[in-house]
Structure prediction request, 303 residues.
Amino acid sequence: MKWRTELHIPASEDSINHNDFTLFMGSCFARNMANKFSYYGFGNDCNPTGILYNSQSLLKMLKLLLGKEKLNEYLFVERDGMICHYDFHSDFKVSSKELFMEKWGQAQREFAQRWRGTSYFFVTLGTAHVYDKDGITVANCHKQTAKLFRKRLQSIDEIQKDLHEIKVLAEAKKLVLTVSPVRHLKDGFIENQLSKSHLIAAIHGARMDYFPSYELVLDDLRDYRFYGKDRVHPSDEALDYVWEKFSESYFSDVTRKVMKSVEKVRKMQEHRAFNIESEENISFQTRLQKRLSELRKELPFLQ
Prediction:
C-alpha cells in the first residue's frame, strides 16, 4: 500500500556540471540551495545584498547590481545607530552612509565579475505580499513603524511583468524559477496560500522553467515531521529530499559520481581527531590534503 504521493520530476533539458557557475537570488530557501551547491564543489553566488522575497524587489536589485538603475537616496533609513536601505536586506548595514556606498560599490564590482561567468540563474520567490512606502515597493521595512507602509498583494500580471523583465536582463543565462516552501504564516494561513498561488500562477503563465520545490515539500512530503520547530521552515531532511530530486533532474550520472567523491572528502574534513599531534592524525591529514589537491585540479570552484 502506498502512503504518500511522490512527485516525479523529469530530467532537465540542460545539465549542470562543475564547470558551470550558478547565481541564486531570492528568499532564504535560495541560500539553502546555494549551500548545497557549495558543499558539493559547485561555483555559486547567492543574494549579494541579502535575502529578497518578492519579484519587484528582486527585479529592482538586479537592475541596481547591473547599473541599470541608480540607488534611491530617499530610501536610506537609520536603525539602532546603523544605516540601512529599504531596497536591501538588514544584513547589508553599516555605521555611516559613506561606508554604505563603499560597501555597495564593492558589491557591484564583485557581482559584475561573477555575472559574466554565470551559466544558471535561479530565482526563488517567497511571497506575493509587498510593502509600499510612498508608492515605492520596499524589500525590507527594517522594523520601522507600520503606519509608514501599505501592505498589498501583487497581482498575477504584475508578477509576470517582473519575471519577463528579469528574463530579459538574464540574457543567455539559463533562468530557473522556484517558489519557496517556507510558509509565511504571519500573513495568515489563507493569505499565505493566496500569495503562493499568485506566484505559481504567474510563473506558469509566463511559461518559464520551473522547479517544484514548493510542491515537493507541501504535496509530496506533506507532513509536519519535515518542518522545523517553528512549523514554518523545512527541516534538514526536507531540504535533503528537495536536493535529491533536484540532483536527479539537473545533474548527469557523471556529475553525481563526482559529487559522491566530493562528499567523501567533506566527511573527512568533518572528522575531529582525539589527538591532533598523533601519527595517525598526521597521516590522515596528509591523505586529506592530497585528495583535496587532486579534486581541485578537476573542480575549479571547490573550496
In short: The longest strand covers residues 118-125. Residues 254-303 form one domain.
